[in-house]
From TrEMBL:
It catalyses: uridine(55) in tRNA = pseudouridine(55) in tRNA. This is tRNA pseudouridine synthase B. Keywords: Isomerase, tRNA processing. GO terms for molecular function: RNA binding; tRNA pseudouridine(55) synthase activity. The gene is truB. GO terms for biological process: mRNA pseudouridine synthesis; tRNA pseudouridine synthesis. Responsible for synthesis of pseudouridine from uracil-55 in the psi GC loop of transfer RNAs. It comes from Yinghuangia soli. Residues 187-230 form the tRNA pseudouridylate synthase B C-terminal domain.
Length: 299
Protein backbone atom coordinates (compact mmCIF):
# COMPACT_ATOMS: atom_id res chain seq x y z
CA UNK A 1 0.00 0.00 0.00
CA UNK A 2 1.37 3.43 -0.92
CA UNK A 3 1.99 6.02 1.74
CA UNK A 4 -0.32 9.04 2.08
CA UNK A 5 0.60 12.22 0.27
CA UNK A 6 3.11 14.46 2.06
CA UNK A 7 1.46 17.32 3.93
CA UNK A 8 2.75 20.57 5.38
CA UNK A 9 4.47 23.53 3.72
CA UNK A 10 5.58 23.28 0.08
CA UNK A 11 8.93 21.58 -0.46
CA UNK A 12 12.00 23.74 -1.14
CA UNK A 13 13.00 24.56 -4.70
CA UNK A 14 15.51 21.99 -5.92
CA UNK A 15 16.29 18.77 -7.74
CA UNK A 16 15.64 15.16 -6.88
CA UNK A 17 17.83 12.56 -8.57
CA UNK A 18 15.81 9.37 -8.94
CA UNK A 19 17.06 5.89 -9.79
CA UNK A 20 14.14 4.99 -12.05
CA UNK A 21 13.03 1.35 -11.96
CA UNK A 22 12.14 -0.65 -15.05
CA UNK A 23 8.49 -0.72 -16.03
CA UNK A 24 7.63 2.90 -15.22
CA UNK A 25 7.45 5.77 -17.67
CA UNK A 26 9.09 9.08 -16.80
CA UNK A 27 5.57 10.49 -16.44
CA UNK A 28 4.76 7.73 -13.93
CA UNK A 29 7.78 8.78 -11.86
CA UNK A 30 6.70 12.43 -11.97
CA UNK A 31 3.25 11.37 -10.71
CA UNK A 32 4.79 9.44 -7.82
CA UNK A 33 7.02 12.40 -6.95
CA UNK A 34 4.10 14.82 -6.91
CA UNK A 35 2.51 12.72 -4.20
CA UNK A 36 5.76 12.23 -2.27
CA UNK A 37 6.67 15.94 -2.40
CA UNK A 38 3.14 17.23 -1.93
CA UNK A 39 3.22 19.56 -4.93
CA UNK A 40 2.05 19.60 -8.53
CA UNK A 41 5.17 21.53 -9.57
CA UNK A 42 7.34 18.58 -10.62
CA UNK A 43 8.98 17.96 -13.99
CA UNK A 44 11.78 15.86 -15.47
CA UNK A 45 14.89 16.56 -17.55
CA UNK A 46 15.13 13.98 -20.32
CA UNK A 47 12.77 11.04 -20.78
CA UNK A 48 13.71 7.43 -20.02
CA UNK A 49 11.85 4.60 -21.75
CA UNK A 50 9.87 2.21 -19.50
CA UNK A 51 12.45 -0.54 -20.12
CA UNK A 52 15.32 1.71 -19.03
CA UNK A 53 16.52 2.29 -15.48
CA UNK A 54 18.80 4.80 -13.82
CA UNK A 55 19.25 8.53 -13.43
CA UNK A 56 16.14 10.64 -13.94
CA UNK A 57 16.53 14.26 -12.85
CA UNK A 58 13.37 15.80 -11.42
CA UNK A 59 12.80 19.47 -10.66
CA UNK A 60 10.65 20.60 -7.73
CA UNK A 61 8.88 23.99 -7.55
CA UNK A 62 11.04 26.75 -9.14
CA UNK A 63 13.72 24.24 -10.11
CA UNK A 64 11.39 22.96 -12.86
CA UNK A 65 12.65 25.99 -14.79
CA UNK A 66 16.18 24.56 -14.73
CA UNK A 67 15.12 21.35 -16.45
CA UNK A 68 15.10 22.52 -20.05
CA UNK A 69 18.70 23.66 -19.66
CA UNK A 70 19.80 20.49 -17.81
CA UNK A 71 18.23 18.34 -20.53
CA UNK A 72 20.83 19.66 -22.98
CA UNK A 73 23.80 18.26 -21.05
CA UNK A 74 25.70 15.06 -21.88
CA UNK A 75 24.34 11.74 -20.69
CA UNK A 76 26.09 8.42 -19.99
CA UNK A 77 24.56 4.96 -20.32
CA UNK A 78 25.41 1.32 -19.68
CA UNK A 79 23.69 -0.88 -22.26
CA UNK A 80 23.55 -4.33 -23.80
CA UNK A 81 23.22 -4.59 -27.57
CA UNK A 82 22.08 -7.87 -29.12
CA UNK A 83 23.31 -8.56 -32.63
CA UNK A 84 21.39 -11.07 -34.76
CA UNK A 85 17.85 -9.74 -34.31
CA UNK A 86 16.09 -6.53 -35.31
CA UNK A 87 12.84 -5.46 -33.66
CA UNK A 88 10.12 -2.98 -34.53
CA UNK A 89 10.99 -0.85 -31.49
CA UNK A 90 14.80 -1.30 -31.69
CA UNK A 91 14.66 -2.79 -28.18
CA UNK A 92 13.61 -6.01 -26.47
CA UNK A 93 10.03 -4.87 -25.95
CA UNK A 94 9.20 -4.93 -29.66
CA UNK A 95 8.32 -7.74 -32.05
CA UNK A 96 11.28 -9.34 -33.83
CA UNK A 97 11.23 -8.28 -37.48
CA UNK A 98 14.30 -10.20 -38.67
CA UNK A 99 16.77 -12.78 -37.39
CA UNK A 100 20.20 -13.41 -38.92
CA UNK A 101 22.93 -15.60 -37.39
CA UNK A 102 25.62 -13.33 -35.95
CA UNK A 103 28.08 -15.83 -34.52
CA UNK A 104 30.60 -15.03 -37.24
CA UNK A 105 30.83 -11.33 -36.30
CA UNK A 106 34.33 -10.51 -35.04
CA UNK A 107 35.42 -7.95 -32.47
CA UNK A 108 37.32 -6.16 -35.23
CA UNK A 109 34.11 -5.81 -37.23
CA UNK A 110 32.25 -4.55 -34.16
CA UNK A 111 34.96 -1.97 -33.46
CA UNK A 112 34.84 -0.79 -37.06
CA UNK A 113 31.06 -0.42 -36.88
CA UNK A 114 31.28 1.48 -33.61
CA UNK A 115 33.86 3.84 -35.10
CA UNK A 116 31.30 4.84 -37.72
CA UNK A 117 28.83 5.68 -34.95
CA UNK A 118 31.23 7.75 -32.86
CA UNK A 119 31.89 11.48 -32.84
CA UNK A 120 29.53 13.90 -34.61
CA UNK A 121 27.05 11.80 -36.61
CA UNK A 122 23.66 12.11 -38.28
CA UNK A 123 21.20 9.78 -36.55
CA UNK A 124 17.69 8.76 -37.55
CA UNK A 125 15.71 8.46 -34.28
CA UNK A 126 13.85 5.29 -33.42
CA UNK A 127 10.40 5.18 -35.00
CA UNK A 128 8.86 4.61 -31.57
CA UNK A 129 10.33 7.82 -30.17
CA UNK A 130 8.21 10.63 -28.74
CA UNK A 131 9.08 12.92 -31.66
CA UNK A 132 5.97 14.51 -33.12
CA UNK A 133 5.05 13.96 -36.77
CA UNK A 134 2.37 16.39 -37.92
CA UNK A 135 1.36 16.95 -34.30
CA UNK A 136 1.20 13.28 -33.31
CA UNK A 137 3.84 11.22 -31.48
CA UNK A 138 5.79 8.93 -33.75
CA UNK A 139 5.30 5.93 -31.43
CA UNK A 140 1.53 6.43 -31.55
CA UNK A 141 1.57 6.36 -35.35
CA UNK A 142 3.65 3.16 -35.34
CA UNK A 143 1.25 1.48 -32.90
CA UNK A 144 -1.60 2.30 -35.28
CA UNK A 145 0.21 0.55 -38.11
CA UNK A 146 1.53 3.60 -39.93
CA UNK A 147 4.91 3.58 -41.64
CA UNK A 148 6.89 6.47 -40.18
CA UNK A 149 10.00 8.05 -41.67
CA UNK A 150 11.91 10.40 -39.38
CA UNK A 151 14.58 12.82 -40.53
CA UNK A 152 18.19 12.35 -39.43
CA UNK A 153 19.48 14.85 -36.90
CA UNK A 154 22.96 15.74 -35.67
CA UNK A 155 24.14 14.15 -32.42
CA UNK A 156 27.53 13.54 -30.85
CA UNK A 157 28.71 10.23 -29.39
CA UNK A 158 31.82 11.08 -27.40
CA UNK A 159 32.30 7.60 -25.91
CA UNK A 160 31.24 4.18 -27.23
CA UNK A 161 33.20 1.43 -25.47
CA UNK A 162 32.66 -2.34 -25.56
CA UNK A 163 33.38 -4.10 -22.25
CA UNK A 164 32.26 -7.62 -23.08
CA UNK A 165 31.24 -9.65 -26.12
CA UNK A 166 29.34 -12.93 -25.70
CA UNK A 167 28.10 -15.41 -28.31
CA UNK A 168 25.07 -17.62 -27.61
CA UNK A 169 22.40 -19.25 -29.77
CA UNK A 170 23.72 -17.59 -32.90
CA UNK A 171 23.49 -14.11 -31.42
CA UNK A 172 26.08 -11.74 -29.98
CA UNK A 173 25.57 -9.62 -26.87
CA UNK A 174 27.73 -6.52 -26.38
CA UNK A 175 27.98 -4.76 -23.03
CA UNK A 176 28.79 -1.12 -23.77
CA UNK A 177 29.17 2.32 -22.23
CA UNK A 178 27.96 5.31 -24.24
CA UNK A 179 28.36 9.00 -23.47
CA UNK A 180 26.45 11.22 -25.85
CA UNK A 181 24.78 14.53 -26.46
CA UNK A 182 21.16 15.29 -25.71
CA UNK A 183 18.80 13.80 -28.28
CA UNK A 184 20.89 10.69 -28.98
CA UNK A 185 18.92 7.43 -29.08
CA UNK A 186 20.85 4.44 -27.73
CA UNK A 187 18.28 2.14 -29.37
CA UNK A 188 19.14 3.72 -32.68
CA UNK A 189 22.86 3.05 -32.11
CA UNK A 190 22.03 -0.63 -31.52
CA UNK A 191 19.85 -0.70 -34.64
CA UNK A 192 22.46 1.00 -36.82
CA UNK A 193 25.36 -1.12 -35.55
CA UNK A 194 23.42 -4.29 -36.35
CA UNK A 195 22.44 -2.97 -39.77
CA UNK A 196 26.03 -2.03 -40.58
CA UNK A 197 27.16 -5.55 -39.66
CA UNK A 198 24.40 -7.08 -41.78
CA UNK A 199 22.78 -9.02 -38.93
CA UNK A 200 20.36 -6.58 -37.30
CA UNK A 201 20.53 -5.35 -33.74
CA UNK A 202 18.47 -4.14 -30.83
CA UNK A 203 18.83 -3.06 -27.21
CA UNK A 204 18.19 -5.56 -24.41
CA UNK A 205 19.27 -3.45 -21.42
CA UNK A 206 19.67 0.27 -20.81
CA UNK A 207 20.72 2.02 -17.61
CA UNK A 208 21.45 5.75 -17.50
CA UNK A 209 24.32 6.36 -15.12
CA UNK A 210 24.69 10.13 -15.41
CA UNK A 211 22.96 13.30 -16.60
CA UNK A 212 25.55 16.05 -16.68
CA UNK A 213 27.10 16.18 -13.19
CA UNK A 214 24.40 14.02 -11.58
CA UNK A 215 25.20 10.32 -11.31
CA UNK A 216 23.90 7.19 -9.65
CA UNK A 217 25.86 8.03 -6.50
CA UNK A 218 23.42 10.90 -5.93
CA UNK A 219 20.30 8.97 -7.01
CA UNK A 220 17.72 7.45 -4.71
CA UNK A 221 14.96 4.97 -5.40
CA UNK A 222 11.32 5.96 -5.12
CA UNK A 223 11.04 3.70 -2.07
CA UNK A 224 13.92 5.52 -0.38
CA UNK A 225 12.31 8.86 -1.17
CA UNK A 226 9.02 7.63 0.27
CA UNK A 227 10.84 6.90 3.53
CA UNK A 228 12.97 10.05 3.61
CA UNK A 229 12.24 12.83 1.14
CA UNK A 230 15.09 15.24 0.46
CA UNK A 231 15.81 17.85 -2.22
CA UNK A 232 19.13 19.04 -3.63
CA UNK A 233 18.76 22.82 -3.06
CA UNK A 234 18.44 24.84 -6.22
CA UNK A 235 21.62 26.84 -5.52
CA UNK A 236 23.70 23.66 -5.17
CA UNK A 237 22.07 22.18 -8.26
CA UNK A 238 22.80 25.24 -10.37
CA UNK A 239 26.37 25.52 -9.11
CA UNK A 240 27.06 21.88 -9.98
CA UNK A 241 25.48 21.98 -13.42
CA UNK A 242 26.56 25.35 -14.84
CA UNK A 243 29.56 27.69 -14.78
CA UNK A 244 29.23 30.05 -11.81
CA UNK A 245 29.42 33.85 -11.78
CA UNK A 246 29.38 35.80 -8.51
CA UNK A 247 28.22 39.39 -8.79
CA UNK A 248 28.17 42.54 -6.64
CA UNK A 249 25.11 43.72 -4.76
CA UNK A 250 24.41 46.34 -7.45
CA UNK A 251 24.73 43.75 -10.21
CA UNK A 252 22.51 41.37 -8.23
CA UNK A 253 19.72 43.94 -8.06
CA UNK A 254 20.03 44.50 -11.81
CA UNK A 255 19.84 40.79 -12.64
CA UNK A 256 16.94 40.22 -10.24
CA UNK A 257 14.90 42.66 -12.32
CA UNK A 258 15.89 41.09 -15.64
CA UNK A 259 18.68 43.52 -16.42
CA UNK A 260 21.79 42.66 -18.41
CA UNK A 261 25.35 42.46 -17.18
CA UNK A 262 28.61 43.01 -18.99
CA UNK A 263 29.88 39.79 -20.56
CA UNK A 264 33.02 38.19 -19.17
CA UNK A 265 33.97 36.16 -22.24
CA UNK A 266 32.54 32.87 -20.98
CA UNK A 267 31.95 29.85 -23.20
CA UNK A 268 28.54 29.45 -24.79
CA UNK A 269 25.71 28.10 -22.67
CA UNK A 270 23.95 29.07 -19.45
CA UNK A 271 25.85 30.64 -16.55
CA UNK A 272 24.54 30.53 -12.97
CA UNK A 273 24.62 33.94 -11.26
CA UNK A 274 24.91 34.28 -7.47
CA UNK A 275 24.69 37.34 -5.23
CA UNK A 276 27.26 38.19 -2.52
CA UNK A 277 25.31 36.08 0.00
CA UNK A 278 25.42 33.00 -2.23
CA UNK A 279 21.77 33.23 -3.31
CA UNK A 280 21.14 31.80 -6.78
CA UNK A 281 19.63 34.59 -8.86
CA UNK A 282 19.40 33.60 -12.51
CA UNK A 283 20.76 31.81 -15.52
CA UNK A 284 22.32 34.12 -18.09
CA UNK A 285 23.82 33.68 -21.55
CA UNK A 286 26.43 35.91 -23.10
CA UNK A 287 25.52 37.50 -26.40
CA UNK A 288 27.13 40.44 -28.18
CA UNK A 289 29.09 41.61 -25.17
CA UNK A 290 26.23 41.29 -22.68
CA UNK A 291 25.08 38.61 -20.23
CA UNK A 292 21.34 38.36 -20.79
CA UNK A 293 19.06 36.62 -18.22
CA UNK A 294 17.30 33.58 -19.69
CA UNK A 295 15.62 32.58 -16.40
CA UNK A 296 15.32 34.58 -13.17
CA UNK A 297 14.68 32.66 -9.94
CA UNK A 298 14.15 35.47 -7.40
CA UNK A 299 11.49 38.09 -6.98
Amino acid sequence: MSKPRRTGPPPPDGLVIVDKPAGLTSHDVVGRMRRIAGTRKVGHAGTLDPMATGVLVLGIEKATRLLGHLALTEKTYEATIRLGQATVTDDAEGEVTSATPAGHVTREAVDAGIAKLSGPIMQVPSKVSAIKVDGKRSYARVREGEEVELAARPVTVSRFDVHDMRVADGMVDLDVTVTCSSGTYIRALARDLGADLGVGGHLTMLRRTAVGPYGLDAARTLEQLEESFAVLPIAEAASAAFPRRDVTADEARLVAHGGRLKAEGAESGPIAVFDPEGVFLALVEEQQGQAKPIAVFVG
